[in-house]
Amino acid sequence: MGGAGSGGYKNSPGDTETHSAWDIIAQDPESGQKLAQVRCKYCAREMAQHTSRQRAHLLTCQQYLEAMKETGIENSITRQAADPAGFFKNSKVLQAFGEPKPPKVLKMAEHSTAARIQALALAEAHISVERIHEVTGIDPKIVAGLRKLARDRGYDPNVSMVLKEEYVWDPPNSNKPRGRPKKRRAEDDLDPELTSTSPRAPPAFGDGDTSLPPGDWNFIIPVTGATLS
């Protein structure tokens, strides 16, 4: 199937409504016309088969709009004719007619380092921002930010036009953490062993305890040859 210029997208929503309002005119083999000719069923207007132009005609064809109104038919064409501004607020309507969605504008953090350097190099070569956006997908505002960021980090094209990765790295996040810092209690700075409330067993000194200085520390010496009176 062909594209919009050849009357294609016959199975997509909305185009069936458009083509159903037209008759295809038998083409003369000797005419040399590349596109088939069509005729409006309601006003007999003839034109080349072109979906967008056929639909544009129906939007202003009073005979067609009156016929749809009399038969109680409401479709995308009649809704667009009645309220053009409100009709195009719905992005699904644009997708129904094969219209591409607007490209998403990526933030700097969503672009690779290579793409940033490429965009910066093109900008320094005085390439238009439109062409830079077409090649790299980077928005003109982000390109301007990249140039300022690179110069803030020491890039000087008058000295050297060599671009370094650190010129285009993400700037540090200066956002402060939310909320107030948690207050520290005095006991948080103390040794847990000192603040423990559980009773501690006294140290035990056994025969093999080597923590005492040398000497005889056994005070319980049996007395022999003497009695207490």
UniProtKB/TrEMBL annotation:
Designated name of the protein: Uncharacterized protein
Organism (species): Neophaeococcomyces mojaviensis
Phylogenetic lineage: Eukaryota, Fungi, Dikarya, Ascomycota, Pezizomycotina
